[in-house]
Write a structure and sequence with these properties.
single chain, 226 residues, alpha/beta, Monooxygenase, Leucine-rich repeat, LRR (right-handed beta-alpha superhelix), 6-stranded parallel beta sheet, 11 helices, ubl conjugation pathway, Leu-rich_rpt_Cys-con_subtyp, FXL22 protein
Length: 226
């Protein structure tokens, strides 16, 4: 039996085991498989692990998307989570090449994926409070928001959660060093039903001017000497 003789349900099940590149390659072999590739049922979950993957045309965005994860763990991408004033020229050039990649992608998600239930961002150093605000506004069914090591996230995101996260049940802001204990407490008070986790966040040294940073480092060294 040829693969094209399988019914649509079987083909969808087969496609579900393939990665995005394999799905795209298989879809290019005939019109019937292309139709399966374009079926919204196939695209309820998307996982990305590098900036390049977000720019490919091997996936579809639409109302069927429920679970989205963008997790960057490579050493090169970690450069984006260094304070701008500490980056050398090479690091700044690298960051600039994909500075708006995730932000632009999330804007597209806001416009095309109103039924999103879960968003996980890890290591996305260029994502801003405004990005998360737009997601919360345009995806009213969002139940889980997990942010890890997203250095530009501040208390503004926490405030947006209290205003627009009516469906939210899980909020993680781990290793987001620019949020404060006050911001976390505000979420706890205004959204008691939200399971809040903020591992190593408000206790970390936030981004600041080099002068202030040096003062903190000197104070730490004195404490060690004592």
């Amino acid at each position: 039996m040829h693969i094209t003789q399988l019914n649509r349900e079987c083909l969808l099940h087969l496609f579900s085991f393939l990665d995005n590149n394999s799905r795209k390659n298989l879809a290019e072999t005939c019109h019937k498989l292309l139709e399966v590739f374009q079926d919204p049922l196939l695209w309820s979950l998307l996982n990305f692990h590098s900036p390049v993957e977000l720019k490919k045309d091997n996936f579809l965005l639409g109302p069927a998307l429920k679970y989205l994860s963008i997790c960057w763990y490579s050493e090169r991408v970690k450069v984006c989570n260094i304070e701008d004033w500490m980056k050398n020229t090479l690091q700044k050039d690298f960051c600039k090449r994909h500075e708006n990649t995730v932000s632009d992608f999330l804007l597209d998600v806001c416009n095309r994926c109103p039924n999103l239930l879960s968003l996980t961002l890890s290591g996305c150093g260029h994502v801003t409070d405004d990005c998360i605000l737009q997601v919360l506004k345009n995806c009213p069914n969002l139940k889980s928001l997990k942010l890890e090591n997203c250095v530009r996230i501040t208390d503004c995101t926490l405030e947006a959660v209290t205003l627009h996260g009516g469906s939210l049940r899980t909020l993680h802001v781990d290793f987001c060093r620019n949020i404060t204990q006050a911001g976390l407490e505000r979420v706890r008070q205004k959204c008691p039903s939200v399971m809040l986790r903020a591992e190593r966040s408000a206790n970390m040294i936030p981004d600041s001017k080099p002068e202030k940073k040096l003062m903190l480092e000197k104070a730490s060294r004195k404490l060690v000497q004592l």
